[in-house]
UniProtKB/TrEMBL annotation:
<keyword id="KW-0808">Transferase</keyword>
<dbReference type="InterPro" id="IPR036393">
    <property type="entry name" value="AceGlu_kinase-like_sf"/>
</dbReference>
<keyword id="KW-0418">Kinase</keyword>
<comment type="similarity">
    <text>Belongs to the carbamate kinase family.</text>
</comment>
<protein>
    <recommendedName>
        <fullName>Carbamate kinase</fullName>
    </recommendedName>
</protein>
<dbReference type="InterPro" id="IPR003964">
    <property type="entry name" value="Carb_kinase"/>
</dbReference>
<dbReference type="Pfam" id="PF00696">
    <property type="entry name" value="AA_kinase"/>
</dbReference>
<dbReference type="GO" id="GO:0008804">
    <property type="term" value="F:carbamate kinase activity"/>
</dbReference>
<feature type="domain" description="Aspartate/glutamate/uridylate kinase">
    <location>
        <begin position="3"/>
        <end position="293"/>
    </location>
</feature>
<keyword id="KW-0056">Arginine metabolism</keyword>
<comment type="pathway">
    <text>Metabolic intermediate metabolism; carbamoyl phosphate degradation; CO(2) and NH(3) from carbamoyl phosphate: step 1/1.</text>
</comment>
<dbReference type="InterPro" id="IPR001048">
    <property type="entry name" value="Asp/Glu/Uridylate_kinase"/>
</dbReference>
Length: 312
């Protein structure tokens, strides 16, 4: 069996800060990202690709909100599905083009993925992930009453809706993903953390208003398909301790134990490097390898020549 890797693309692989979210701009970024993923295919890995969707799902929510008097808005699970479709399409097409240019015959398939979470997850009692547009205090009160949304003040910039961010419990469709990997296919799955679903009282799946962290979903995917490596590609070359301070120090290869100690000492910010390191540590602890590196150096990092590597 070829080595199996799950690659989680960070937000910068699709849209960089301060860029306008036109299709052209996003497609240009995705083409560059696809070229880098194709280099990993050349290294002869079985690849599952996952990705973030923050700005894209934010814009879908905004479209819903702006047009709510004309077209009924859709709930968050559907918005995630829309973003997986849109981003998956861009990635699938760009990656296929990159592969063909390199003379590689692999197929690329996007799988709209449901991520099951527990209805009892403590995140449901404590929604804390801000999403969508900003509202005035007055509008925020109205939303709380009309839609039962939980609204929170966001750093003096206005009010935003906050939603639960539960832990992924099971990624659906994994058996099919493995079959596709065995047939020379790169699978794009679990985008934006996947469509959040729970089991109802009858044990049936249903969508739910939540968002799931893409690095947590990537880790779960990597476990379920028995990948040997889980990579998170982002906009920094390495993980650092004392990040942003004068004495910051780049981490190269570190043990799970060392990584956990730095985590406990608070070196990794909540909402950015924190969830990545949490996922990396939990994955590597199973005797595997987790890598956090820049998008540009992904192939080098896989060869052990760049990035931060956590080994179990
Ligand atoms: P992504 O879209 O790739 O998930 P995030 O913004 O969530 O991107 O995470 C990457 C960011 O984490 C970096 O741009 C960096 O500013 C931030 N970061 C926080 N703590 C650290 C750290 N200790 N070392 C490196 N980067 C860190
Ligand atoms: Mg992130």
């Amino acid at each position: 069996m070829a080595n199996r890797v799950v690659i989680a693309l960070g937000g910068n692989a699709i849209l960089k800060p301060n860029q306008e979210a036109t299709l052209e701009v996003q497609l240009d970024n995705v083409k560059v990202s696809a070229e880098l993923v194709a280099k990993i295919e050349e290294l002869n890995y079985e690849i599952v690709l996952t990705h973030g969707n923050g700005p894209q799902v934010g814009n879908i929510l905004r479209q819903n909100e702006e047009a709510k008097d004309v077209v009924p808005p859709f709930p968050l699970d559907v918005c995630n599905a829309e973003s997986q479709g849109f981003i998956g399409y861009m990635l699938e097409q760009s990656l296929k083009n990159s592969l063909e240019t390199k003379g590689l015959t692999s197929n690329v398939i996007t799988l709209l993925t449901q991520t099951e979470v527990s209805a009892e997850d403590e995140a449901f009692a404590n929604p804390n992930k801000p999403i969508g547009i900003f509202y005035s205090e007055e509008e925020a009160k109205q939303m709380e009453q009309e839609k039962n949304w939980v609204m929170m003040e966001d750093a003096g910039r206005g009010y935003r809706r906050v939603v639960p961010s539960p832990q992924p419990k099971a990624i659906h469709g994994v058996d099919s993903i493995v079959k596709l990997l065995n047939q020379n296919t790169i699978v794009i799955a679990g985008g934006g953390g996947g469509i959040p679903v729970v089991r109802n009282e009858d044990g049936l799946l249903k969508g739910i208003e939540a968002v799931i962290d893409k690095d947590r979903t990537g880790k779960k995917l990597a476990e379920q398909i028995d990948a040997s490596v889980f990579m998170m590609l982002t906009d920094v070359s390495n993980v650092y301790i004392n990040y942003g301070k004068e004495n910051q120090e780049k981490l190269e290869t570190i043990s799970v134990k060392q990584a956990q100690q730095y985590m406990d000492e608070g070196h990794f910010a909540d909402g950015s490097m924190g969830p990545k390191m949490e996922a990396a540590i939990a994955f590597a602890a199973q005797g595997k390898t987790a890598i956090i590196c820049s998008l540009e150096e992904a192939d080098q990092a896989l060869l052990g020549r760049a990035g931060t590597r956590i080994t179990g």
